[in-house]
């Protein structure tokens, strides 16, 4: 089963990501401090940000619960972000978009057998995380430079470049 919602294009999602950078005054040539922003939003009452022990989360790294407006994050994932294991930044940015979908954009969600990717909440959240963490502006850089500058894994940097290149074809 998938969860379908309001359709978004890559361009729409890129605009949301760029607006987030503007909202928090984060320039395009630096990393987006996901943990710092999520903690700030938590402290300002936008949502709850809860760190949980691994055993409590079962097989999930993080998830957003719309019913209690909470982003739950496994403690080891949170610590990885703080310790510079940057693949976890993607996980947190992904969950942040689920909050945006539900509370800021007020999208409706429906369980379906299948849906187009642009209606799939998971595809949208992955695209947002990629756009937020690695702006299109940076895609002319080598993957090693992207990873270093934007605090993402080398795999994420290479994949983002490849995906964008394939879209240009």
Q: Can you characterise this structure?
A:
This protein has helices at residues 10-23, 34-43, 54-57, 75-83, 87-104, 121-133, 143-150, 154-168; strands at residues 2-4, 48-52, 62-65, 70-74, 110-112. It is mainly α. Strands 2-4-3 form a three-stranded mixed beta sheet. The chain has a two-stranded antiparallel ribbon with strand order 1-5. The mean pLDDT is 95.
Record keyword descriptors for this entry.
single chain, mainly alpha, 3-stranded mixed sheet, globular, 8 helices, two-stranded antiparallel sheet, about 170 residues
> Percentage of helical residues?
40-55%
Placed side by side, the strands forming the largest sheet appear as 2-4-3
Number of helices: 8
Mean pLDDT: 95
Structural class: mainly alpha
As a whole number of angstroms, the C-alpha radius of gyration is 16 Å
How would you describe the shape?
A: globular
Assess the beta-strand content as a share of residues. 5-15%
Order of helices and strands: EHHEHEEHHEHHH
Low-confidence stretches: none
Number-wise, the strands total: 5
Sheet bearing the most strands, described?
Answer: 3 strands, mixed
Distance between the termini: 31 Å
Blueprint of the fold:
Blueprint: E1 2-4, H1 10-23, H2 34-43, E2 48-52, H3 54-57, E3 62-65, E4 70-74, H4 75-83, H5 87-104, E5 110-112, H6 121-133, H7 143-150, H8 154-168
Parallel strand pairs: 2-4
Antiparallel strand pairs: 1-5, 3-4
Helix pairs in contact: 1-6, 4-5, 5-6, 7-8
């Amino acid at each position: 089963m998938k969860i379908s919602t309001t359709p978004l294009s890559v361009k729409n999602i890129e605009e949301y990501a760029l607006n987030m950078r503007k909202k928090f005054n984060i320039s395009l040539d630096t990393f987006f401090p996901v943990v710092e922003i999520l903690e700030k939003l938590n402290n300002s009452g936008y949502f709850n940000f809860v760190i949980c022990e691994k055993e409590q989360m079962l097989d999930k790294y993080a998830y957003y619960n719309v019913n209690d407006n909470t982003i739950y994050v496994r403690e080891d994932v949170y610590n990885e972000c703080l310790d510079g294991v940057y693949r976890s930044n993607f996980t947190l940015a992904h969950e942040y978009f689920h909050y945006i979908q539900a509370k800021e954009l007020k999208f409706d969600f429906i369980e379906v057998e299948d849906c187009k990717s642009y209606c799939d909440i998971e595809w949208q959240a992955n695209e947002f995380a990629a756009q937020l963490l690695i702006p299109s502006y940076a895609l002319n850089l080598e993957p090693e430079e992207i990873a270093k500058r934007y605090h993402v894994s080398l795999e994420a940097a290479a994949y983002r470049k490849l995906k964008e290149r394939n879209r240009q074809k």
